[in-house]
Amino acid sequence: MISKYRALLSAVELGSLTRAAEALGCTQSAVSHTIAALERELGFRLLKRTRSSLRLTDEGERMIGAVRSLLAAEERLEQTAAAIRGLDCGTVRIGAFTSVAVHWLPAVLKEFQRDYPQVSFKLLNGDYHDVNSWLADGSIDIGFVALPCELKCETITLMEDRLLAILPRDSRYASYPRFPLVECEREPFISLLESSDHDARRALEAAGVKPNVRFYTKDDYAIIAMVEQGLGMSIMPELLLKGRHDEVLTLPLVPEAKRTIGLALAAGENAGPATRRFCDYVVRYVKDACAQG
Question: Does 255 sit behind a cis peptide bond, omega within 30 degrees of 0 on the bond before it?
């Protein structure tokens, strides 16, 4: 029975029976028959299928949360049984925003895979809103989040990350040691979408500043490219800008502003052994990285 739910979730997440079949290592026909059999057992349709799209029915929408919970519980069961046998395996599902996905995850994954090669990973990359949504609906086991987190998850504080002003190289503020936040009311401002822009918004609201927003985008690196072209300025986390050589000016803020990066565990105390162990690796990596400056 559980394999039928796995086929359903794969089809929903990948948006295609064909892609679900590739992920599951079977034929498209097998996935279609499996989901049809599940629909007969349940007594109602789960998917609406056309030649170009696949989406959940109203009944399917009501079911999908429970399906995710069921499969997450199965994964935790497999991890626990493997740990008892002395063999760490299973799949750890991770959600991360850009700066973590670029600067932290590759190194942590490399170290973890060296010690636990039987563990596999599913990585989802998005913004704060995406990660919170994935945590809430059970799509991921671990999410990198900005703290405080409104979700009812166990959280682990990792580090504080300064926010910096980024401006065109020829900005009139080039001689300033710090960028006064109040100037965001006069300078053209490039913002992330409201659902994602927690860092800059919190800093601006705390300073009582209403930015002169001219552009909105969901992509961090699009903002950097727009600043390079002189279209405006923005506020971004230091970790995101680390190691880059863009043609932009970066300045600390006045007043100073930071974000707090943390880990959130969707399953909390019920997280599987592999998931818990991976969290330990993340905490150690970040601690060492901060110590090295």
Answer: yes
